[in-house]
Amino acid sequence: YGSRAIGQSLRYLGLRSLLLQAILAKVPGFINSMKRHILIYGLLGGILITLLKLMEYRFLVIERSVEIYGGLVAALFAALGIWLGLRLTNPKQKVIVREIPVAVGDLFVLNEAKLNELGITRRELEILEWIAKGLSNREIAEKLFVSENTVKTHSSRVFEKLSAKRRTQAVQIGKELGLLP
Amino acid sequence: YGSRAIGQSLRYLGLRSLLLQAILAKVPGFINSMKRHILIYGLLGGILITLLKLMEYRFLVIERSVEIYGGLVAALFAALGIWLGLRLTNPKQKVIVREIPVAVGDLFVLNEAKLNELGITRRELEILEWIAKGLSNREIAEKLFVSENTVKTHSSRVFEKLSAKRRTQAVQIGKELGLLP
DNA sequence: TGAAAAATCACCCGAAAGTATGACGACAAC
DNA sequence: GTTGTCGTCATACTTTCGGGTGATTTTTCA
User: Hey, which of A86, A94, A133, B164 would disulfide with B159, CB 3.0 to 4.6 Å?
Assistant: First the structure.
């Protein structure tokens, strides 16, 4: 009658599993991870119960078997609980966005409007740039392959257009007006 | 002889506690929360065991007591495990540092280290600042109520210390070194 | 209190910077 | 083809700058 009992048990299990499936199908929008966790939990619980049942028959005769049984259950479920707890809290990573003001490297854009407004030519601006870098008229002349007098005329014109009396003042005004970086 | 035994026991406990204290003192930097958790866990475990012992004597006579016992243990330790797991899991808050380029108004801080390194005095720096603003030596002298010669000596010194040949170059170098805004 | 550092001023001289004026060629626009 | 702008260069002149030297006073600091 052993095989009959097994057959009945299987049928019983089959019915149960069908019912379970039907119930689960009725709740489709359930949180997936939660569902999975519960399923795994239930599965492990079932396995554990089975193991315990087996152990029960083995160890029930042994003295203090209840303590061993309880200890095993406690240890297993504690481990399971810890695992579950860790799993459940895993996606709880809080995102803190801390905005740090970064001194952006001053991206210089030439103020061409001001350039045209003052009627400063490209060449004159070029000379002004070299002046701002600290070059003397002679050095600028050598760098641009022109005479020192040419540099002087250009610089004089640029000073006049910037209303500057000195090259240092011209540089200062040029920076203020966005003509120099 | 009862009092003697008690005395010995107390002395023994005293020795033990002293040893324990010494050992604990040697390990001062142990993680506190971990310790607390373990202590709570152990305490609850002890209480639970006591409760179970009591229950054991009450329910052992009842049929299926082992199942009830195991279920209780399982439930309690599962709950405990979940709680522990939640506690143990670090508040996983991820800090995302997002650097946002903010056009921060150039907050100028004087590079005093460079100033001392080059041996530039306050007065010399002051003259350099006025030079950077485009003033002539005469104008600076008038502004500072000193003679033009004084301004010239100061500026000459500053040029020498900055390895500059011209005032424009001195201004440029001064800005590079963080001595001028 | 006494030496070192800093600030002040003066004089000279040469170099650099800046002004004024004129001129010439290239090139684009009208 | 005339006009205007731009870049180039020159001469002459004035102003400013920068180097060098020396000196005096004030401040600072040990």
Answer: B164
